[in-house]
Amino acid sequence: MYADDNDGRLVRGQAGDNGWVRFLGTLPNEQPIEDQLDAIREGLLFTYTKMAKLYRCPVAERNEMRTYSTVHAMNGVNFTGSGEVYSRLSQVRRAGERLVFLDDYGEDWDACWAVWYTQPSWWNPIPMRHRKGTTFAFADGHCDWWGWTDQRTIDYGNELWAVSESGAGVEKNQPGNVDLMKLQRAAWGRLGYEP
Predict the structure, then answer these.
(1) 0.85 exceeded by the pTM?
(2) pLDDT tens-digit profile of 184-193?
(3) Would you say 106 and 148 are in contact if contact means Cβ atoms under 8 Å apart?
C-alpha cells in the first residue's frame, strides 16, 4: 500500500527519520517501552497499520516492542557483500519468493536484517523463537514459517544476539548450508557465489 501511494517506491528499509520505523540507537530494546512505541508510531508504515502490536512477535521478550525487520534488499543499504538493493516495487521479480520482513531480535539497531550475498556466510544473527525455525513475510503479501534442518543454523540461531553479532560463537561461514542458501536466495533473488 505504501508503494501504491508513493509512485511505486518502497519504504526506506532501514530505521531512520524517513524509515519504516524511527531510529532509536543501538540496542533499541533497552530503551523505555514508550520510546520504542513512539519509534514505531513515527515510522512511515504506521499510517497503514495503526497497531503497534503488529510490529512485535507475541512470544518476544517483554521489553521488545519491535521484533520484525526488513531485509536490506528491500530499500535498505548496500553493504560489503550485499546483492542488489531495490528502491521500487517494480524491480522485485518473483514476489512470492522474495523476503521483505522477518522475525528478528529486538536488539537489531537498524531494523534491517542482513545476510551475505557474495559468500556462504551469515551476517546478522538468525532468530529462532518458534521451535527450530523463523517466520517471514514476502513481497506478494504471504507469510511463512521455515524450519531449519542444518545443525549449524540451529546452533547459530540458539545463540544470544550479542554473541552471534560479535562473531564470538558459532562460525558464521557455513559452506553447503542449505538453510543459509535458501535464505540468501529469498533475500537477494539468487546466490552471488558458486555453491
Answers:
(1) yes
(2) 999 999 999 9
(3) no
